[in-house]
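Hypothesis: this fold can be encoded by more than one sequence.
Test: take the structure tokens below, design a sequence, compare later.
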């Protein structure tokens, strides 16, 4: 009897819990399976739930926005577009000997006073550059150090003396001013440390528009113009026997040319997109004359106090440029001259209905500019391009599932 009671106790104490544990494990397993299924359902609808709660920029959903952020983070630092504006003043750079296209004025500065035996002759060094200039630039940086830009320059080169002869009985001078528009593509190199930076540029420099206006004045009391202009084999006349007053306003046009533009600037960063700078820039080129047109012209000639309207084939009393023959109101330039050219200076024949032909001249119009300005960097188009790329990549990912 005792053995039966003990057996029943052991069965109740040990076997029953095992059945109970099996029931509990089964219940827990079912609960775990239910939790996993619920979690998977939550993961599959996470995007939809997030999109219903969060509003992403540019009309993107969560996946598209995540791709857009990743693409933005991988873009090179400093990449983007920028604009610049600066203005300043320039001085002549790399001066050369200046001259007038009119032989009657020449290529030097002659000076002598009446009664003095000392004649001073000097070269007139300078350029047709310098003066005020304003620049507008559009550029693109490929990264924070390297880029390309394109600069347009509007310059007003001040009036300067080209040549002068101031001796007893003869005075002649020419002064020139130029307004010009230039373009210059540059390679841009930048380096930045903290709020300070250095930008250097090098590239080409080309004039695309220019209005070079000259004023020529001659007061001849020796008849020198009769020799130089008409080719007459006469010696200068003394004693005021001849009187020639010549005034003209000329516009000169040039052949296309290409020069160099190089600059360095010190930058100070004011904000993420804005900085100011101080810049030194060299713009250097030489240019050859193509033709000169007289816009205004008056000429008065007297010999022994008597007005002379014509000398040989040439009209010598002119009240307006419209009265002048083509020979006196237009000059074309050539590398060499012979007797076949339309000029009276070397013994050839003159056709008054054709332009005067002269030897070609090259001018140096180089300048060293100092300017201050600002740079605004932006990349508004990246948002548009980035959004399109992000949507395209998101569509590929979803199509692959």
């Amino acid at each position: 009897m005792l053995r039966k009671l003990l057996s029943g106790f052991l069965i109740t104490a040990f076997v029953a819990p095992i059945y109970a544990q099996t029931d509990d494990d089964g219940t827990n397993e079912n609960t775990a399976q239910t939790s996993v299924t619920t979690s998977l359902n939550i993961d599959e609808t996470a995007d939809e739930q997030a999109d219903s709660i969060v509003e992403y920029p540019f009309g993107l959903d969560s996946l598209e926005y995540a791709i857009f952020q990743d693409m933005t983070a991988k873009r090179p630092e400093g990449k983007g577009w920028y604009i610049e504006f600066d203005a300043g003043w320039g001085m002549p750079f790399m001066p050369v000997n200046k001259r007038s296209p009119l032989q009657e004025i020449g290529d030097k500065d002659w000076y002598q006073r009446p009664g003095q035996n000392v004649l001073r002759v000097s070269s007139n060094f300078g350029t047709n550059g310098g003066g005020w200039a304003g620049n507008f630039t559009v550029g693109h940086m490929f990264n924070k150090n390297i880029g390309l830009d394109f600069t347009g320059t509007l310059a007003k080169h001040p009036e300067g003396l080209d040549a002068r002869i101031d001796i007893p009985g003869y005075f002649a001078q020419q002064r020139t001013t130029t307004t010009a528009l230039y373009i210059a593509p540059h390679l841009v190199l930048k380096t930045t440390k903290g709020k300070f930076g250095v930008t250097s540029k090098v590239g080409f420099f080309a004039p695309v528009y220019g209005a070079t206006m000259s004023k020529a004045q001659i007061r001849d009391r020796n008849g020198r113009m009769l020799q130089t202009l008409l080719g007459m084999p006469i010696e200068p006349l003394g004693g005021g026997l001849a009187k020639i007053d010549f005034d003209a306003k000329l516009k000169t046009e040039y052949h296309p040319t290409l020069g160099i533009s190089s600059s360095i600037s010190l930058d100070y960063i004011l904000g993420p997109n804005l900085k100011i700078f101080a810049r030194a820039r060299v713009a250097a080129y030489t240019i050859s004359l193509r033709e000169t047109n007289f816009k205004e012209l008056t000429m008065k000639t007297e010999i022994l106090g008597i007005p002379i309207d014509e000398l040989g084939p040439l009209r010598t009393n002119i009240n307006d440029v419209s009265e002048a023959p083509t020979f006196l109101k237009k000059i074309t330039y050539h590398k060499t001259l012979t007797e076949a050219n339309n000029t009276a200076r070397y013994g050839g024949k003159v056709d008054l209905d054709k332009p005067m032909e002269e030897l070609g001249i090259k001018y140096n119009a180089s300048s060293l500019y100092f300017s201050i300005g600002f740079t605004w960097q932006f990349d508004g188009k990246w948002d548009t391009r980035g959004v399109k790329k992000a949507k395209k990549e998101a569509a590929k990912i979803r199509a692959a599932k």
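The longest strand covers residues 196-220. The two ends are 71 Å apart (CA to CA).
Hypothesis status: open.
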